Amino acid sequence: MRGDIFSLGFPPCTALSLHDSSACIPAAYSTCVLRRCIEPGHAILSLESGLLRGHSTVPVRTIIVVVVLVSLTALWFVDSWEYGVKFQGARYTVRMLLINLAWLAVIWSAVVSAWRRPSFTTNLLLHWLLFAWLGSCAFPNFGELP
What we know:
Elements: H1 15-18, H2 21-47, H3 60-88, H4 90-116, H5 120-136
Helix pairs in contact: 2-5, 3-4, 4-5
């Protein structure tokens, strides 16, 4: 006798046998919200595992990641500006640019602060700001919605 669930006499799992349609949408929404809250934390710890050990210095790889993301964001806005104005409107596109510039100013000030006065708090704040920006408004969708 095999040790899996199918050998115990349970029917095969299907989407219809597990959830009805009234439970699927809230379940998908809650997992999406939960994932948005948990994944940045996992990303922070995967980029800077020294945070688990209480390191105060910001690693060079974090600075490289910030520089690469700022460059990619600039290219994103240059490349998709026309689509943003066409599909989302000039007002929305300019607002997203200003919001991203504000986020980047705060992130760069955190980089400078963490580099000048290393502490665990500034290191954690820098990484939290970086991934909060990535999870919230970095690389906005300016194209036509499906």
